[in-house]
Amino acid sequence: MGKPKRERVLKENEARAVSHMIRISPQKLNLVAAMIRGKKVSAALADLEFSRKRISETVRKTLESAIANAENNHEMDVDNLVVAEAHVGKALVMKRFSPRARGRVGKILKPFSHLTVVVREVEESA
């Protein structure tokens, strides 16, 4: 009984992790995501560790989760992993209002984002 198993969306040598509802604008998060795209996992973790951006801690956690998924769920070698994709999606925007002069109102937008990190195992070049 039960429902049938879903087809795997990624290739056999890929694993991913997704963080939803991160409290930062997609534009700012994409700056940090672009910093790690295409790099080896060890270099990407080092870059995030020493980055001065506030959101780099959350991106590092998501990358570590993708690495753990690759190692534990798909039996991949951690030393051969590369950040294949790191893309950012737009989530909801909270709207707040602040009183301004002469009875007017100022709109304050508080955006949220989604982050998806895909790691891929590559063969070592001899």
Automatic annotation (TrEMBL):
Pfam families, alphabetized: Ribosomal_L22 (PF00237)
Tagged with keyword rRNA-binding: yes
GO molecular function per UniProt: rRNA binding; structural constituent of ribosome
Coiled coil regions, renumbered to chain: none
Family listed: Belongs to the universal ribosomal protein uL22 family.
Function per UniProt: This protein binds specifically to 23S rRNA; its binding is stimulated by other ribosomal proteins, e.g., L4, L17, and L20. It is important during the early stages of 50S assembly. It makes multiple contacts with different domains of the 23S rRNA in the assembled 50S subunit and ribosome.
Record's subunit section: Part of the 50S ribosomal subunit.
Name of protein: Large ribosomal subunit protein uL22
